[in-house]
Design goal:
about 30% helix, 3-stranded parallel beta sheet, about 240 residues, 10 helices, 7-stranded mixed beta sheet, alpha/beta
Length: about 240
């Protein structure tokens, strides 16, 4: 799922889980921004699995990545928003999300009766996206920035405007409003992972406090009883058994 990390870090994280590159059946790309595809040219030298990507995203990747990207491709499976397909024994459903990329996607994965939903890099949560996130046993959602920290932070104003836009990133506040709403978040997840936390404009403790406050606002009969986890880009989470 994406390839934003470099070759050494990616291989180290796979090795920590006793996973070899030969066991990978497919590579999914959500969109072409560098933090999601920077390591792809290097890793394609090792990964023999096909790349699953939309046509607009593929065109964007060819423009923003070095020539080694195209030379190392082993195969491309063209996908599109709304499509259901299978990789190995995992049923995948791709859906559109609002972000300032060529054709950004979120994904749900189902296997052996368990469902995982993964969506980062979106400016707001449309109702259709909320529908895709329902019934997930594990939900990974971005909680990118704290509004006040972003406003006084180091980013140029034009970048701040991009982050705050409806095709930017979700704030802690936007996520908290979603988590507190029983009509939006069904609270069925055994694991709720908040990720894509900005190093410059957020803090893991602030993310947790905001989410926990929101979850406490839910009605008792729709309480969240799962585990809340805050992802850190430098330290991988432990494997989660679904």
């Amino acid at each position: 799922m994406d390839a934003g990390l470099g070759k050494r870090e990616t291989l180290a994280r796979l090795a920590a889980l006793n996973i070899t590159v030969e066991s990978l059946d497919g590579i999914l790309i959500t969109h072409e921004h560098s933090d999601h595809c920077h390591g792809l040219p290097q890793m394609l030298g090792l990964w023999k699995a096909p790349l699953y990507v939309t046509e607009p995203t593929m065109d964007a990747l060819q423009q923003c990545l070095p020539e080694t990207f195209g030379k190392r491709l082993r195969g491309v499976e063209t996908i599109h928003a709304g499509q259901r397909f299978t990789i190995g024994d995992i049923d995948v459903h791709a859906f559109a999300i609002p972000h300032d990329a060529a054709d950004p996607l979120g994904f749900t994965f189902k296997s052996n009766g368990a469902k995982m939903a993964l969506v980062t890099d979106l400016g707001y949560l449309p109702e259709l996206v909320k529908v895709h996130l329902r019934d997930a046993d594990c939900l990974l959602l971005e909680s990118n920035h704290d509004l006040e920290m972003l406003k006084v932070g180091p980013y140029p104003w034009v970048v701040k405007q991009r982050v705050l836009s409806r095709t930017g990133h979700l704030s802690n506040h936007a996520v908290s409003e979603y988590l507190a709403d029983p009509e939006g978040f069904d609270a069925l997840a055994r694991f709720l992972i908040l990720a894509h936390v900005s190093l410059e404009n957020n803090n893991p403790d602030v993310v947790r406090i905001s989410a926990e406050e929101a979850l406490r606002r839910r009605p008792a009969e729709r309480a969240f009883t799962g585990e809340l986890l805050i992802a850190n880009q430098h330290t991988p989470l432990q494997p989660l058994n679904l």
